[in-house]
TrEMBL record:
Keyword Heme: no
Protein's name in the database: Kinase-like protein
Domain Aminoglycoside phosphotransferase residues, every copy: 24-249
One Pfam family recorded for the sequence: APH
Amino acid sequence: MSPVTKLPFSLALKSVLAVSPRVEADSTRFVREHTSVPVPEIFDVVESASGNGLPGGYIVMSWIDGEPLGDWIGHHLFEPPETKAALDQLDAAMISGDSTALTEAIARAQTMPHPVFDVSSVTQIGDDFRRAFAELRSIPPPDSDAVSALGGRPLNIIRCTVIPRQFGPFQSQQAFKAAILSQVSLDSAHLLPDLRRIAEPVHAKRHRIVFTHADLHPGNILVKDGRLAGIIDWERAGWYPEYWEYTMIEYHMINRRLLQQFWDAVEPFGADVYRDELALEWALWTTTGDKAIPNPSADELICPRLVEGAGQHGNKYNVLRSSTSHRVAVPGTL
């Protein structure tokens, strides 16, 4: 996420690196013009190449009040009484500085039931998400099969790579799917026969091409008063196969148990959808580029989210609490 500075008069200044700011500005304006999805209003765009010659610049836009989705989820947890007592003990041990008491408190806390997301709090925001995605996916694409950013530009993706890169554009979804498969790392080449088998049902299906944000991690979603207040950072948006939003949401909640519980409760695209597509993407995440998933078994391609009891499979959650009694999730767990 690029740096954003709050300005007077409810304005925001965003510094954009490594890509033209017009990419995000154009996508944000497009969504604002074609839907009621809450996005910033764009007032000005300034292009300014960086010292290394890469594109960049600034966007002046409206400021949206709200807290990131990850923070909001952290404020809507249910803690079993025994867990609360164990965390109270941990707080007291941390304040006292008694190393023996702290060791005992940590050991006790690790045996306690995990806090869980309070699913009763998603009624309104769940409706907001389903409405937003329905609107985005109802916009007619300029080409029923091409995969690209707005105006036929290359896609700006960050999947399976630390540094965003341009990808495409593609004249057909088959070309896009083939290109995704071709990104498999050399050290995973021996798994290509298995990957091609997993890819068969996805490559055989013609998906709708829909407008997609493609980077919906919790920091890009703002919540206020239990409602969807804004979706920001549209620089990776474009025309993708319909499953891409779903699988990229999954990508951003790997090993984030509470975030999985939230999206499982919302079901923004309906229940039990895109199973073949998620199975393929998971297998590719373990074998592509910088490898988004540190897979415990090099040859294990089965997505744990598709296994019975999915949401709880193999995910770890740690909770700390400050002396002010405000619970915080350890980074990477929400």
